[in-house]
Design brief:
heterodimer; A: about 475 residues; alpha+beta; Arc Repressor Mutant, subunit A; 3 domains; three-stranded antiparallel β-sheet; B: about 500 residues; alpha/beta; Amidase signature (AS) enzymes; eleven-stranded mixed β-sheet; about 15% strand; globular
Chain lengths: ~475, ~500
């Protein structure tokens, strides 16, 4: 089960810790009233505070604090009732004040844990070291002009949560599972939209390698990787590089590196010697952040059901396999859809239809559950027709395809196409008699012991009745005559 | 009496009694500025036209009986307060053409109460200095003269322009900011009253930051009552400054002249420091006698960590300034000097934009926050700062107010002790501890020294007890009967 890389000198294990920057969903920025929404013409969501004008002061946005606490609760982490904001000082063109307000020594959220599940069903727990709030920087654009760079401050000051994991991750697969799980939790909580392609979730990846049983060796940090797939690639590529360095008798330097997906390699960005001295100190413009336990409790009570809890409940309440439950809770909207379909119906059948035919159709048409052409009510309506034996499973497939195309209800389609299942034993008996008469040779073979032919007779009868016969009655009738 | 010699209280009464108009009052001051500012350099920017236009509005309000507390009163504004549409320089080249599109809370409060701004007063660059000699717009001259000596004296700093303007009759009052003594020490040097309120009493929003945990705006005026009137407008909670404190603003004027019977006044032993001039020691003793006569009980107290005040201040304040001034990078506002790379542009811009004292403090601050030095300097300074605060807290369990000298010497001449930064820093030895502790403190002129220069005493109070300062200050003021005027003043110039 464990993931290792083979080198010339033996087997290597990899050690990974992730620092995820998750942009907080909020109306305004962490310390100013400017809009925190994505998009917008450059420099249109910028207040004087964001632009670092003389005399401007930060004022904490308490909605962002609530979001950080919700996230901490979702990570089953300790909420620190007193935390503090520090200044991280460095000069850059997209950092207007010359410092980023962050939480260095006293973060709002302490230790927590995230449960991940791997492809082979293994469950692992990845430790969370901390979560702290900080400001995002603006965006530097170097590709707009041959000689000049442009700065967009729309993002400057938007609240980020930096979620730091313990170095508990041991494979690219685990890193991927961790990021997907984290994103799932953030989306459930509504605290971050998790869109890595828009940059609202980014990861810094700390990678080192070691031989089994060794203490940690020197790590490198790969900055700002913006997709789960790239994180997984970057880990593999960087681990392979480090193994080669060690095996060639070299030393891995602690440094910051960049992942280049087009060349599938990591490159040194700056060494430890060039590392910034950020001169952290408590921001004198802000008081220590003190939150009441009562408020934390209130936020906790209002928390939505989290994915792990929902999965466990689905298994228990609906009697579906854990795997199916995991698939169904992947997104809140899918889980809601499923519960709507399953409500008062055969929950396992509902799970099969949602994870099977519906997901297949959505994949085929490139749609998400939110804009599914078949609503949960509509799919439930179809299951009702199956339950009351108006249609059988085979006809249901046909009805489903029609629903996809036309958006009509199952009942309308059954009416329009005359697909109502035939339960009239007279008609079925007549069809049975006709089929047997036309296949006297096969009847003889069957009676001679060729049991397999029973299915053939069923098929022939169903065909004769255009698929609408109730399969149970057909079976019954055939058995009786044969 | 000339209009430029009136107190704010008397001028406000005169305006209401229609003895003179706001236009006359403001014009007397803009004329005085035109006549004397070329010499004193108390203002960096003057706004006579806007002031006269505001005076016209004030007269209209007075005519309608809609006067507010400061209607028609001409004030100088330290050029560290951002003023909407009026150039705000912090006395620095880097902001020499900066016109803010916003108003600081303190100046907005004064405007709300009818004040008329006649200009932006000079200061040490970014409020860093004690003699107003680091301004990029040239030094300010103290309107006072030593007996038989025409040497140009320093007005103190950093609010030297405000102090000189108020002393010389170029404003009836002025705003100052005080980080380690920048209101009190120039007030003492220029023979006026200066009040540094409790940290958090006035909003810092829109005031250019030097050291955020220490900076506090306050009034400078020719009487204790005038300071009370100004503070009434300046003080108050502001949601835009998280360190401003949400508590009611009391009636400060009511405290002026209040009986001192039974008030316990502490005399801290540690302020009898080396280098304290004999004349100031004598003035201090005189102040003690006056307060005794007013019914106060004098109590000896000890503030044992006083001696660490300056050293601590010169770690904390530069540390914060090194970060606060990072935004002056030439990118979004202020002056820019181009360079081949971003870093080169930063270096050229900041080298050209900042004067030597500002650069020195940025370097000190950067050093004390650096990896490997943080614990030894910044962290230790924070610990000492809490001990200094504790000294005050413990003293205030025994006494209601402390009386000390404001500065160890009277004003000195431009060029004297100004080439040794450490010597210069000693000017603030008595004012820095109250700043470090966030306590309110006030300097009141109590007499003239041997050379004919004003001497000030400092009162330090409990947090948010500016009223006791005003009460004790007005007692000192009446006992001293300080009516001396400087050699260079508006009236004398006519």
């Amino acid at each position: 089960m464990s993931y290792t890389l083979e080198g010339r000198t033996g087997t290597w294990e990899i050690v990974v810790g992730l620092e995820v920057h998750a942009q907080v969903i909020s109306h305004s920025k962490l310390f100013s009233g400017a809009s925190a929404s994505y998009g917008g013409e450059p420099n249109t969501h910028v207040s004087l505070v964001d632009a670092g004008f003389p005399g401007m002061l930060p004022v904490l946005n308490h909605e962002c604090v609530a979001q950080a606490i919700r996230t901490g609760l979702g990570l089953r982490a300790r909420i620190n009732l007193e935390s503090r904001f520090d200044r991280k000082n460095y000069f850059y063109a997209d950092l207007p004040t010359g410092y980023q307000i962050s939480q260095f020594t006293h973060p709002i959220v302490g230790e927590g844990t995230v449960e991940i599940e791997l492809g082979d069903g293994t469950v692992r727990h990845i430790g969370i070291t901390r979560l702290h709030m900080e400001q995002d920087a603006g965006k530097s654009m170097h590709d707009q002009d041959p000689t000049r760079s442009f700065i967009d401050l729309n993002r400057a000051g938007v609240a980020l949560m930096e979620i730091v994991s313990e170095p508990d991750i041991r494979s690219p697969e685990e890193a991927g599972a961790y990021l997907r799980k984290l994103r799932q939790i953030l989306r459930y909580l509504g605290t971050c939209d998790g869109n890595m392609e828009e940059g609202s979730m980014r990861a810094d990846v700390n990678v080192s390698v070691r031989k089994a049983g060794e203490p940690f060796r020197t790590r490198c940090e790969i900055k700002n990787v913006n997709s789960i797939r790239y994180v997984m690639h970057a880990i593999e590529v960087e681990a392979t590089r480090q193994i080669a360095v060690w095996e060639d008798g070299g030393e891995v330097d602690q440094e910051t590196r960049l992942f280049d997906p087009s060349r599938n390699e990591t490159r040194s960005l700056r060494s430890k010697e060039d590392a910034h001295d950020y001169r952290y100190f408590p921001d004198p413009d802000l008081l220590p952040l003190v939150v009441e336990q009562a408020w934390v409790d209130e936020l906790e009570r209002a928390l939505p059901e989290l994915p792990d809890d929902k999965r466990d409940r689905f298994v228990k309440q609906y009697g579906i396999p854990r795997y199916d439950a995991s698939v169904l809770v992947a997104e809140q909207a899918i889980a809601d859809y499923y519960e709507e379909v399953a409500k008062g119906r055969d929950a396992r059948l509902a799970a099969n239809w949602v994870t099977g035919d519906l997901f297949g159709a959505l994949n085929r048409t490139g749609r998400s559950i939110q804009d599914s052409p078949i609503s949960a009510q509509a799919l439930g309506g179809m299951l009702d027709l199956m339950a009351d034996k108006t249609i059988n499973g085979k006809i249901a497939k046909e009805v489903f395809e029609d629903m996809l195309e036309t958006g009509d209800s199952a009942a309308d389609i059954v009416d329009r196409k005359g697909l109502k299942q035939v339960t009239d034993t007279g008609a079925i008996d007549a069809a049975v008699a006709d089929v047997l008469a036309r296949n006297a040779d096969k009847v003889a073979e069957y009676r001679g012991g060729k049991d397999r032919l029973f299915g053939f007779f069923v098929g022939q009868v169903m065909k004769a009745m255009a698929g609408k016969a109730n399969p149970a009655i057909v079976n019954e009738a055939l058995k009786k005559v044969l | 009496m000339s209009l430029t010699e009136l107190t704010i209280a008397d001028a406000a009464a005169g305006l209401r009694a229609r003895k003179f108009s706001a236009t006359e009052l403001v014009r007397a001051h803009t004329d005085a500025i035109a006549a004397l500012n070329p010499r004193l350099n108390a203002y960096i920017t003057t706004t006579p036209d806007a002031a006269l236009a505001a005076a016209t509005h004030a007269d209209a309000a007075l005519a309608k009986g809609e006067a507010k507390p400061l209607t028609g009163i001409p004030l100088g504004i330290k050029d560290l307060f951002c003023t909407n549409g009026v150039r705000t320089t912090a006395a620095s080249n880097i902001l020499k053409n900066f016109v803010p599109p916003y108003e600081s809370t303190v100046t907005a409060n004064l405007l709300r109460d009818g004040a008329v701004f006649v200009g932006k007063t000079n200061l040490d660059e970014f409020a860093m200095g004690s003699a107003n000699i680091t301004s990029a717009f040239g030094p300010v001259e103290n309107p006072w003269k030593r007996k038989g000596d025409d040497a140009a004296l320093v007005p103190g700093g950093s609010s030297g322009g405000s102090a000189a303007a108020v002393a010389a009759g170029l404003a009836m009052g002025a705003t100052g900011t005080d980080t380690g003594g920048s209101i009190r020490q120039p007030a003492a040097y220029c023979g006026i009253v200066g009040l540094k309120p409790t940290y958090g009493r006035c909003s810092r929003f829109g005031t250019i930051a030097y050291a955020s945990s220490l900076d506090q705006a306050g009034p400078m005026a020719r009487s204790v009552r005038d300071c009370a009137i100004m503070l009434q407008s300046m003080a108050g909670f502001d949601v835009r400054d998280s360190t401003s404190v949400n508590r009611d603003v009391p009636d400060y004027s009511a405290a002026v002249g209040r009986s001192l019977k039974g008030l316990k006044v502490g005399i801290p032993a540690e302020y009898r420091a080396e280098g304290l001039s004999a004349e100031i020691e004598a003035a201090w003793q005189q102040g003690i006698e006056w307060l005794k006569a007013a019914g106060c009980e004098i109590v000896d107290v000890s503030l044992p960590h006083t001696k660490y005040g300056l050293a601590t201040y010169y770690i904390v304040a530069p540390a914060e300034c090194s970060s606060n001034l990072a935004r002056y990078d030439g990118l979004r506002f202020g002056e820019r000097v181009e360079g081949p790379t971003l870093d080169a542009m930063y270096e050229a811009t900041r080298r050209a934009g900042f004067g030597p004292e500002v650069r020195r403090r940025i370097m000190m601050g950067t050093y004390v926050l650096s990896a490997g030095y943080y614990d030894a300097y910044y962290l230790k300074a924070q610990k000492v700062r809490s001990l200094i605060r504790r000294d005050f807290t413990e003293s205030f369990q025994k006494v209601d107010v402390l009386l000390t000298p404001t500065a160890p010497t009277p004003a000195f001449a431009q060029g004297e002790k100004t080439d040794d930064p450490v010597q210069m820093y000693l000017n603030d030895i008595f004012t820095v501890p109250a700043s470090m502790a966030g306590m309110p403190a006030m300097s009141v002129p109590v007499g003239l020294g041997a050379t004919g220069l004003p001497l000030g005493l400092q009162l330090i109070g409990r947090p948010f007890d500016e009223e006791t300062l005003l009460a004790a200050g007005s007692a000192l003021e009446s006992a001293a009967g300080f009516t001396h005027r400087p050699a260079i003043r508006a009236e004398g110039a006519k």
